[in-house]
Specification:
The protein is of the alpha/beta class. It has 6 helices and 13 strands.
Length: 227
């Protein structure tokens, strides 16, 4: 299975840190955030990674190269301007191929990956869901017997969870959309409405590295965890 890391965003919420450095290269525990993803992918046995790039793209290419030092083969999907999540994935499909692939949002840090074998026949996605963080207490979806649903059976009967930004995706989820910039979320919600999305709950450490404060907190946590 190949993997795709979404890394083309402008990182506006991380300013001023991203005024001169693309968000994927911001340091966490002594190395760029994106390198944590690459190391985890290599440990999981994934050999080919596609990274979409736009803002300060050449800095990312210079920093990561062809991936050999990570034990990976890295290819880049270049965007003249960011195409959002859905459009970025669609533009990268010639590099990803027709088989399901692992999708990783470059804006997160997570101790785990979704089950790479969990995508069922006819399903379009398998999502890794996490406990709701303080900045997103309402969550995104519910999980019912391994299926992702928009709402629970009744108020309070099924806890809402947050989409982690990690998933296994079937290319057909985005392949037939008109080319250009478009979001992934509406397509996921439509697939959930059609009962074509499975999921799993991960209760370990996950961080949406969306602000300088959360970046600093993650850096402190990882440094303190060192033996």
């Amino acid at each position: 299975m190949k993997a795709m890391i979404l890394a083309a965003g402008l990182g506006t919420r991380m300013r001023p840190l991203t005024d001169t450095c693309p968000k994927p290269l911001l340091p966490v525990d002594g190395r760029p955030l994106i390198e944590h993803h690459l190391a985890r992918l290599a440990r999981a046995g994934i050999a080919e990674v596609v990274i979409n790039i736009s803002y300060r793209a050449e800095q990312i290419v210079r920093a990561l190269g062809d991936g050999e030092r990570f034990g990976l083969s890295i290819r880049y999907s270049r965007e003249a301007a960011p195409l959002e999540t859905g459009g970025g994935i669609q533009a990268a499909l010639p590099l990803l191929g027709e088989a399901p692939f692992l999708l990783v949002n470059g804006d997160v840090w997570c101790e785990a990956l979704p089950d790479l074998r969990a995508l069922g026949k006819g399903d379009l996605a398998h999502l890794l869901l996490v406990d709701n963080p303080g900045h997103h207490p309402q969550g995104d979806f519910c999980l019912r017997r391994g299926r992702v649903v928009a709402e629970g059976k009744a108020a309070g009967s099924e806890a809402r969870l947050t989409y982690s930004g990690l998933a296994v995706i079937d290319p057909s989820l985005v392949a037939n959309e008109p080319p250009g910039a478009f979001a992934l979320a509406p397509l996921l919600r439509a697939a959930i409405g059609d009962d074509r999305v499975s999921g799993e709950h991960f209760s370990g450490r996950w961080v949406d590295v969306g602000t300088p404060e959360r970046l600093a907190a993650l850096d402190k946590h990882l440094r303190c965890r060192r033996p």
